[in-house]
Amino acid sequence: MASYCLTVTRLRLALGTGARRFHVSAAFSAKAKVAMSRFEPSSTINYEKMHENINIVRRRLSRPLTLSEKIVYGHLDDPAGQEIDRGRTYLRLRPDRVAMQDATAQMAMLQFISSGLPRVAVPSTIHCDHLIEAQIGGPEDLQRAKEVNEEVYNFLATAAAKYGVGFWKPGSGIIHQIILENYAYPGVMLIGTDSHTPNGGGLGSICIGVGGADAVDVMAGIPWELKCPNVIGVKLTGSLSGWTSPKDVILKVAGILTVKGGTGAIVEYHGPGVDSISCTAKDWRRMFYSKGLLLLVCLFSLYSLRLTSQLCPLLHLLSEISAVADHFKDDLVPDNGCEYDQVIEINLSELKPHINGPFTPDLCHPVSEIGATAKKNGWPLEVKVGLIGSCTNSSYEDMGRAASLAKQALDKGLKCKAQFTVTPGSEQIRATIERDGYSKILSDVGGIVLANACGPCIGQWDRKDVKKGEKNTIVTSYNRNFTARNDANPATHAFVTSPEIVTAMAIAGTLDFNPETDYLTAANGEKFKLEAPTGDELPSRDFDPGQDTYQYPPAEGSSVMVNVSPTSNRLQLLEPFDTWQGKDLEGMRILIKVKGKCTTDHISAAGPWLKFRGHLDNISNNMLIGAVNIDNDAVNKVKNLLTGKFGGVPDVARHYKANGVNWVVVGDENYGEGSSREHAALEPRHLGGRAIIVKSFARIHETNLKKQGLLPLTFDDAKDYDKIRPDDKISITGLPSLVPGKPLTAVIEHSDGSQESITLNHTFNETQLEWFRAGSALNRMKELQ
Q1: Conformation bin of residue 258: beta by default, left when phi > 0, alpha when psi is -120 to 50
Q2: Residue 32: what pLDDT?
Q3: For residue 267, what are the β-bridge partners?
Q4: pTM of the model
Q5: Helix (H, G, I), strand (E, B) or coil at 267
Q6: CB-side exposure of 757: number of CA atoms within 13 Å?
Q7: Start and end of every Aconitase A/isopropylmalate dehydratase small subunit swivel domain (predicted)?
Q8: What is the per-residue pLDDT across 447-469, written as a single tens digit (0 to 9) for each?
Q9: Peptide bond into 198 cis (omega under 30)
């Protein structure tokens, strides 16, 4: 219970007097109704219901529960009748709220409009953070984004008002930081249309990344399905010191679990070491998962679900939530004797600073060894750009630690040798670090403070210092470092690490700089070492909320007009997908047989394509243009088997569709890892795809494919991937009798006339099969109205 007491103490220290406070009464009864946030006074925290559900499940299972299980099972739609078996059964859940970033919110709101429902059933918010491109600096880039994206922002603002959704305007900050500051609290279950949603787990929450169609289900008041997650326990002992930071924990875990090792699991941190880490420092965990560890694990899972097994201090929790949480404290910690599916132990006292990359977030190296490893592999040692901030690592504490290093360099007459950028996670962080002098220090050392937005982390970076194809190294504190992720340059070697290591390497200008042992040369020629970074967990003068950027939805929004021009190239109303015809799919072409890693960035690129996220036909022109074709090792070059000519992947898909030819994609392991973007499922469906056949899927992408009426199938024998040739035809048989757990058969017809059959597996449950038969989950929803 020590962790719980520490949490309450930190909560009270964090209360302050800032404008973002939302609980203000001095006296409180544990049974009183407490608002979930200051923005939604009529929506209250329901720990009583969660407590009731937990007790029902505990009696049924007759065993101790992890914290993860308590929160998940506490949100069951039917705790008495729900079959519960980790890793096997599907749970029907009732999340507390929904959050959407602007790039995914466009399609989510278009789908909600198509549902015909008048208003969302749970508290929901839209956050404008993805469409702001980093070019010059914060104010200039924000103003340009407002002008360029005016049509989209107006659509989102009016749709939010009409359907009862809160709207965070451009410049508010990144969705995950806003959630952390305003909406997360111990025990809440939140789903967000972004794979980095697990950021909120730092507050003892279950925050899960999903596709837009999942968000529509929850906003429509329909129980949301999730395969019962396994629980991976990470036991922390010891305490951090010196250059080691909480981010090093997740970097280490990513190296252990890899980008797919957390698929279908929640990662729960527990042990005495948790007590020594602050709430904001615990966003680290999202770095991993989301990053899917940085990753890919991105979610980390699949889940992109991550959370701590102890309560953490929440910046926005005040006395009332603290009192309620205290009353239900036994529901907010793991039971003694609970069991995890896997346990990883990390001694924080022995942990050293780490850096992961390049090209994947699970390639883990101690900072002390990265120089030698880079030289051995021919990776560029010169750090061209250091980038700190983003939704994961832009807390007040993070910025303070980075500024403490910058101040040391300035005192010695030095500035950064590399370019250096700073991304505040929210308007509150921007205003507070500006008031407290951190921004000036970081600017004086050579940094450029960017807008409160995702920016380079998601490829929204108008980079000018290198040419495309030029080999170079960048070091970031971001969430992912896939090929071309940040700057669209496949030759950029991107590494992820803590903000303090990024800052140190930007000052030194080289990847082989180890701040624990190496010296810098001051302007006067003196040799000196940087002292370990320091930073206050919370500002002594409370947070400065900055500008008010929140739009409340009106109590009645039916009169609000939401306009989508039929000639717009940014927005397009959705047409229902065709329904399954009740028979096997025969003679389908292989659009592309993908070689190696295929993330959602490969399937539906971000960066400049973000502008089309609300227009399905236009954004479909980027479908699979980043995937490597095994036939020729080229990207966006596949053979059109009707014409015999090569063309771009979307172009060939459109030609097949126009000629009534169904097609499939064949892929490798962990297909669709990375972002939660459902466009990676919508685009194949829109262009005539029927099935995606791979060795294994990332969780969110597999669900997104099901939601859109596609067949996500896996080889029963992974070696069967090698049997399929790019010029084959494939027939999938057994569909009329398809039931949960029953495999399908694929008949492969080779160009020489020979045939062979292989077994394909699926994870459909009965509800999901109804989506397939109806043509999509949205079609099925409308059938049931």
Answers
A1: left
A2: 62
A3: 232, 306
A4: 0.88
A5: strand
A6: 7
A7: 588-717
A8: 999 999 999 999 999 999 999 99
A9: no
